[in-house]
Amino acid sequence: MSKPIQLGLVGNLENRRIRDFCNSWQALGQPRPTLIDYQHLPQSAPRVDVLRIDSPGESAALAAELIAIGGGPKAAKLEHGEVAYLREFHLGYCAQLQRINDWGLPTFSAPAEIATMFDKWQCHQRFLGAGLSRPPSSLAPLSCAEWQKQRADHGRVFLKPLHGSSSSGVCALRWTSSKQQLQSPIRIAGGQLFNSLRVQKYETWPEIEFILTRLLPQGMVAESWIPKLTQPGGAMDVRVLVIAGEARHYVVRQSHSPMTNLHLGNRRANSCGLDVPLELAFRLAEKAAACFPQSLYAGVDVLLDLRGQPFIGEINAFGDLLPGLIHRGEDPYSAIANAYLGLLQ
Contacts for 151-154 with beta carbons within 8 Å, 24 or more apart? Predict the structure, then answer.
């Protein structure tokens, strides 16, 4: 048995992430972790040996608190799934990460690196600086009128919120001089935008303008739309969990829409039947994770173009929620826990 390590778990305490990691940690003979609620962060450092910082998502009360900390309205009453105040949520979360950083405790992933992983433009710059393949990208204008001025007569592009996650607010646009289309897991209701579990198509300019007028001011990245490798079952990309520098658990995702996120009803593909090897994707994911040397693990989304060449799509500080995946006899949480304990030996 490894030396007892008192782990502190920071997160939403009712979330399955906290429950499942607790179970994995204790299954290795370690003491029950100390649970630390984002909404009740202590002023001084808790008495733990190391911290694992988990996702702030899936809590309306926490979202309202972070929005207020980030300069938004106090007690923002967002309806379930509403897409709003992304910038303020991010600023509030960065402030909480700084509080955690000020405790001066060891962490599985450094708070500053988690904050950077939540900023798509900073990640883009970091990847380019490391010479990694990325779709050409730029900061989008902050208004729909300016977007119309800058866009070419025809084209296709992804607009991604700077601080969004799980495809929230991501828009795939294509247009010509005579028609346009926006695809996004967004629905319009009551004058607001809401996350949808189904990718919607919008083909009238008033609808597209309505969406962009609300998203662009919150900050977005315009990313070139690289046609993805398509095989029976749809276009594909790969989510790779990199742990301690090594590509471990992965899932090939296939979709008939531009978004491949599994929660949108897309499918896990059987990699054994693919016509393209994934080794290049794994190596690129490892290089992307290496851009964050103070993070023990990260989920990396790798795009594959029509020739099977890999490009970094996203990196996710909390991309380890991959239930049912086993690699070398370990689920993702057990692999992360064992990797940390292995570093102490």
Answer: 151/175, 153/177
Q: Around 114, how many Cα atoms within 13 Å sit in the side-chain half-sphere? A: 25
**Residue 217: pLDDT above 70?**
yes
CA-based R_g, the chain, Å: 20
- Residue whose structure tokens are 């929005």: 67
Q: Please write the tens of the pLDDT for every residue from 106-161.
A: 999 999 999 999 999 999 999 999 999 999 999 999 999 999 888 877 789 999 99
Cα–Cα distance, 179 to 160 (Å, whole number): 21
C-alpha span between 100 and 170 (Å, rounded): 30
Give the whole-angstrom CA distance, residue 277 versus residue 207.
41
Cα-based distances in Å from 177 to 126, 142, 181, 210: 35, 22, 12, 19
Tokens 């309505």 belong to residue: 210
DSSP letter string, 230-266: EETTEEEEEEEEEETTEEEEEEEEEESSS---GGGT-
Strand, coil or helix: what is 139? strand
| Count of residues in the chain | 345
Query: What does the pLDDT look like over 260-310, one tens digit per residue?
Result: 887 877 778 766 556 677 999 999 999 999 999 999 999 999 999 999 899
Report the distance separating Cα 90 and Cα 19, nearest Å.
Answer: 25
Q: Which CATH superfamily is domain 227-343 in?
A: ATP-grasp fold, B domain (3.30.470.20)
Domain ranges of the chain: 7-107, 137-224, 227-343
CA 39 to each of CA 52, 60, 67, 92: distance values in angstroms, whole numbers, following the listed order: 16, 11, 12, 12
- Of 18, 326, 97, 38, nearest in space to 7 by CA: 18
Cα torsion angle, 28, 32, 33, 36, sign? positive
Cβ atoms of 170 and 158 within 8 Å: the answer is yes
Query: Do 295 and 230 contact (CB within 8 A), yes or no?
Result: no
Are the CB atoms for 226 and 235 separated by under 8 Å?
no
